[in-house]
Specification:
The chain is mostly helical. The chain has four helices and three strands, in the order H-E-E-H-E-H-H. It folds into two domains: about 80 residues, 2-Layer Sandwich (Alpha-Beta Plaits), CATH 3.30.70.100; about 110 residues. It has a three-stranded mixed beta sheet with strand order 2-1-3, covered by helices on one side. The longest helix is centred in the last third of the chain and has 60 residues.
Length: about 200
């Protein structure tokens, strides 16, 4: 995730090689390429001698096989690399959909907070009434019990609302994490586009 596959692709393109570069789970990079053997040798030497500062090559293991002619270009591979323009649009649309969902959740949270404020005001009113009624406790005992039941019901509703708010905050954290991932992918795509533009002289 430091742009090493882009470096490999640019080098392979300059030597006229076809194939792909792919990140492996253990941190290695797998490179499969087809072309003239002399060009492949020059390509490997170039990688060793021009390793970019943001990456480190500890070891290169090579294995030669018969030419198959199964590639037409050299590409970067991986789950973080959209292969077609349609996939990029899908990622962006997914981000828009999640942003809209986040707005809906925030609106719902705002509405629930408003209801909580109303219930808190009602609770204060009830408690004030209870305080006034203590001077005539014997005469108003039934009313006091009824108001206490209402207070308990309101507090239970508030607790349920707080649970929903907690769930919403958890969702927002997930949206933030995905937004950061999308931003990183966008930056990688931007670097690839700039590299392609430089190569094409645009």
């Amino acid at each position: 995730m430091v742009g090493f596959r882009t470096f490999i692709k640019n080098a392979a393109d300059s030597f006229g090689l076809k194939g792909f570069a792919e990140n492996l789970p253990d941190g290695d990079v797998k490179i499969v390429c087809e072309g003239e053997k002399d060009k492949i040798t020059e390509f490997i030497d170039y990688i060793k001698q021009n390793t970019p500062s943001f990456a480190a090559i500890e070891n290169i293991t090579m294995e030669y096989e018969s030419y198959r002619g199964e590639f037409t270009t050299f590409e970067r591979r991986g789950t973080d690399v959209p292969r077609e323009e349609g996939e990029i649009l899908t990622v962006l649309k997914s981000f828009d959909a999640k942003a809209e969902k986040m707005v809906v959740i925030l609106s719902a949270m705002n509405e629930k907070l408003g209801r909580i404020d109303e219930r808190q005001d009602k609770t204060v009113e009830i408690l004030e009434d209870v305080k006034e009624d203590t001077s005539a406790m014997r005469e108003k005992q039934d009313k006091t019990l009824e108001k206490q039941d209402r207070t308990i019901g309101i507090l239970e509703d508030m607790r349920a609302d707080m649970g929903e708010i907690t769930n919403a905050l958890t969702f927002l954290k997930e949206i933030h994490r995905e937004t950061v991932e999308l931003r990183e992918k966008y930056e990688l795509l931007s670097r690839d586009v700039e590299a392609i533009k430089m190569k094409m002289g645009v």
